[in-house]
Amino acid sequence: ALLLNQIRRAGIRKKIQLLIYAPNFISVIVLCGMVRMFLSPVGPLNKLIGSDANWMTMPAAFRTIYIASGIWQTAGWASIMYTAALANASKDLEEAAVVDGANILQQIWYVQLPAIKNIIVIQFILQAGNIMSIGFEKAYALQTDMNLPASEILSTYVYRIGLLNGDYGYSTAVGLFNSVINVILLIFVNWVVKKLNDGEGL
Asked: Taking the model in full, what pTM does it have?
């Protein structure tokens, strides 16, 4: 959002925003289909680097693919929030900073970041509550027989062992563990936010 805010040409900024925001409004299955097409042996990535590798069959690449696609899918919503907050940043302060000779980094640090600090705190709290949510839907959609050693992560393991085999107690225990960890994280984050409020007046 900070980088987008530096783009003054509205047409270019809208095209980049569309690229970033789009995954937030499509289903996980469609997103995984796009990832598979992009990383296929005849996909754009291999054409770009001159290779014919099948990235979806490589266990070593699965974690990177999973995390990168997750960032791409969720970054849009956060960017919308931050961009909206930046739109309310004081233009007078920005102009004053430019007149005083502030470079781009100084403008971001002293003018733009203070304008979005409350949104940063809110996003921090919301994301802390989801840190244990792996999302087995995407793991299954990206899973192949070749990348199974890496793609058989916690949620798929619980789903396969617990639900498919009828061992609901096992699945419930793991779900309860996840919930307890999330509650602990939220309590910790709220404590951090309270300290920030007391110390810096957020």
From this structure: 0.62
